[in-house]
Amino acid sequence: MKSFGPKPWILPQPVLIIGTYDKQGNPNAMNAAWGGQWDAHQIIISLGSHQTTDNLAVNPEFTVAFATATTLVAADYVGMVSGRNTPDKMPKTGWTIEKAPNVNAPLFKEFPMTIECRVRQKVDESATGCYLIADILNVLCDERYLSDDGNPDVESMDLITYDPVHHTYIGLGATEGNAFSDGKQLK
Ligand SMILES: Cc1cc2nc3c(=O)[nH]c(=O)nc-3n(C[C@H](O)[C@H](O)[C@H](O)COP(=O)(O)O)c2cc1C
After folding, report:
1. 19 lines ligand 1 (CB under 6 A)
2. At 131, which CATH number?
3. Which residues contact 177 (CB under 8 A, 6 or more apart)?
């Protein structure tokens, strides 16, 4: 086994699109890979100093959408340029933007699934950012991506993951097995 020392290489990483409003109500989005579930009702995001950070300071509600193969280019774009100095950042994405139903944050309609969140706590806050812990207030899923049991059909969403080693986006792929079930073969 080759050793690489400490690296930010938890695999696979999500491609989270964080939607916020600035104090004038202008929408913004950024890409975040270093985030995940904190507990059953909360998420955590490692947040640097961005327009998004400024927006959350004045309006602590936001959306988190999961990027897909078809939203990849614009999802990458919102992770490379800042709303701080790019006034046409959101028009360039081509995304359809509405206010989310339950939070004061933008909903990007091209994404199959989005969670609506409110900041609960900022851990280790400094000029360079913080670890954001936020309550999940609601989960929204476009009806076109529901399975027969009425729940989100993850496989149909064409989600992408971020490869932090080679800085690529990799398609999620097909179902390989059943959790809490296939392992029973070895019991
Ligand atoms: C693949 C990828 C992953 C990223 N992950 C994070 C992250 O986890 N946390 C973070 O603060 N910034 C992350 N960024 C950087 C922000 O998305 C980027 O600085 C963005 O321009 C901020 O936009 P804003 O200033 O308009 O809010 C990531 C960017 C890319 C392309």
Report:
1. no
2. 2.30.110.10
3. none
Structure-derived torsion over alpha carbons of residues 159, 164, 169, 172, reported in degrees to the nearest 10: -40
Residue 45 lies in a domain: yes
In this prediction the pTM is: 0.97
Decide whether any atom of ligand 1 lies within 6 Å of the 18 Cβ.
no
> Domain limits at 42?
16-186
Render pLDDT for 117-158 as a digit per residue (tens, 0 to 9). 999 999 999 999 999 999 999 999 999 999 999 999 999 999
Question: What is the number of structural domains in the chain?
Answer: 1
Task: Tell me the best of 16, 30, 43 to mutate to test the pocket of ligand 1, counting ligand atoms within 8 Å of each CB and taking the most.
Answer: 30
The model's pLDDT over 47-78, given as tens digits with 9 standing for 90+, comes to 999 999 999 999 999 999 999 999 999 999 99
Structure tokens at 160: 């992408």
Nearest CA residue ID for atom 18, ligand 1: 79
Encoded tokens for 116: 């609506």
